[in-house]
UniProtKB/TrEMBL annotation:
It comes from the Eukaryota. The chain crosses the membrane at residues 6-27, 51-73, 85-104, 124-143, 163-184, 191-209, 246-264, 276-298, 333-361, 381-400, 406-429, 484-504, 539-563. The gene is SLC5A7. This is High affinity choline transporter 1-like. Belongs to the sodium:solute symporter (SSF) (TC 2.A.21) family. Pfam families: SSF (PF00474). PROSITE patterns: NA_SOLUT_SYMP_3 (PS50283).
Amino acid sequence: MSLNVPGLVVMAVFYVLILGTGIWASLRSKKEERKCTGDGMEITLLAGRKINLLVGIFTLTATWVGGGFILGIAEATYNPTLGAVWALMPVPYVVTFFLGGFFFAKPMRENKYVTMMDPFQQRYGNILSSALIFPALVADVLWVARTLVSLGGTMSVILDLPYAYSIIISSLVAIIYTLLGGLYSVAYTDVIQLVLIFVSLWVCVPFLMTNPHSVDISLTAYNYTFQNPWVGTVELDEAGKWFDDFMLLALGGLAYQAFYQRILSSSSYTQAQVTCFASAAFCLVLGIPSVLVGAVAASTDWNSTGYGLPTPYERDQAGAILPISLQYLTPPYVSVIGIGAVAGAVMSSMDSALLSSASLFSSNIYKNIIRKQASDREMQWVIRISVVVVGLAGTGLTFLDSSVLVFWIVGVDMSYTIMFPQLVCVLFFKVSNCYGAVVGFAMGTIMRVLSGEPLIGLPPAIQFPGCRLDKEGKLTQFFPFRTTIMIVSLLSILLFSWLASIIFNNGLLSEKWDVFNIKHKQNPTARATHNKRTNCTHFFLLTLLPSLSLETGSTLLSVFICWTS
């Protein structure tokens, strides 16, 4: 196969369009910064909290509908050992956005936080919060990697462009326009990218459905033809794993900075809610084409195509089934349109991950810990350097593994088992403190590592009920172990926070053992209530005592002493 020159030209035009939009948005951000009375960092990271409703909906949807979303759904649907019932991404994302809109957006908006980690720093201080930021940063780096893997595989299949060149070019374009304008550039380029994703995918579907090498997908949905039915099944002994994957995707997304970056950039809580609910509907619609691509691939006689035998699954190329299907089951000009959808999806997610991680480092580590007196200009450079470092780290990881699902699952896994319970406790439970957070973090991390992960070849040291070899011969946990770990971590935070509060506030241990100083952090409210009560009583007695008899006055004074002691 020779280099696809027309396809390269189309991709070049697409990249120029995206870069041009990013430059225009960066100029817009500079104008807004001159008008705004706040600091420049808020303009860069949150677009001055004035993002347009429609743009907000587009950028939140585009953030979630990335390359991993499009290729991952197609891969799961086509995979003979999984099927469409395991292509879970669209429905859990609806849950993510509804929960985020109803419960998480309000406390974040009301307190005017800049990042997801701000409540941690306010409650726990800088040292512990720095440790909690680490898994969030790692998840963002893995997010960059999985989006680039999806694009690199697609471009190498359709354009015959070397895998490394595809990844490096795409990474550079995303880094450049993210550097230029921050959230403004990311949001406005997301609008173009989402339109491209929607149009391109739906243009390709009719050609795939009517190609001569595939049979009607309704016939192969529940019947064995060329492989197992593409709908797939969830056996009773697999229900725990299915539920675990569903909850992982539904709740794990609530612990991503990229989600709150869109929420906090909205001009009001109501707008933030509308953004979440509208994005949920878009995710459902945009998931349908990938399911259809996987279904067509599962209904194809690959021996009659230019691809030949063995099948993509037998060649261990299930992760690239979408570009392979476009290449061998559609006309060349249609396959080029399809790669535009993947490229748009990749760029829309990658820029979000870059800005998300830059926000966490610049705001919560550099500004709040390293240099509290840093100027706006200095912070702009810190953000830019952070974007470059994360981009390069994510790009480097793409050469270690070529599976989209590996980076997808591992990244979301960290958010679900470690960060989600921490975020729930710090936002909704006043009892939570540093001691509980440390124990919960340790419990979640240790249990997750010991539970193993077949995708990265880590054997389980803890074997939950139902642990056995899967259809591919890998030792797998079929019990909802991630959800169990998340619940254990959450309960550990609450239990040990309560115990520590009881121990130190009641003097069961000396204050010198209170390394996190929780007694003095929790006591100001109690002291304020006590002082207020004492002052009111003072006023009452000073007003009343002169008019009372000596005996009555003595009695009231005794009661006052007992009440205030």
